[in-house]
Design brief:
By secondary structure, this protein is of the alpha+beta class. 35% of the residues lie in helices and 21% in strands.
Length: 106
């Protein structure tokens, strides 16, 4: 329908009344439930999400879709702080030469 509703009776809420962050969060969760396995790429999932939701998002996606591999591009310390072993840093990819010029490590 044109007006998707969440909940029922007194607690019914139109999806049109959700904030942009709530819609984004909901869309990630709904998409994850449709995947049994595979790969999910998300670019900047933190957009419009409050900090608590940024912290919870990856764990929820992993719980909903445990056989889906997640790839994220994020600027959010709230997201990558929970997974320091999974976040590659640019410094890890760059080596400083003896002349103090940066070069990419092959």
């Amino acid at each position: 329908t044109d007006d998707l509703k969440l909940g029922h009776d007194q607690n019914e809420l139109s999806i049109e009344n959700l904030s942009a962050g709530e819609k984004n969060f909901l869309s990630f969760l709904v998409y994850a439930t449709s995947l049994k396995e595979g790969i999910m790429f998300i670019d900047e999932p933190e957009l419009n999400l409050q900090i608590d939701w940024q912290r919870d998002l990856i764990a929820l996606l992993q719980k909903i879709a445990p056989n889906v591999q997640l790839f994220l591009a994020t600027h959010s310390p709230a997201i990558y702080a929970g997974y320091p072993d999974k976040a590659p840093w640019f410094d890890d990819l760059v080596r400083t030469s003896t002349t103090k010029e940066s070069t990419l490590v092959a």
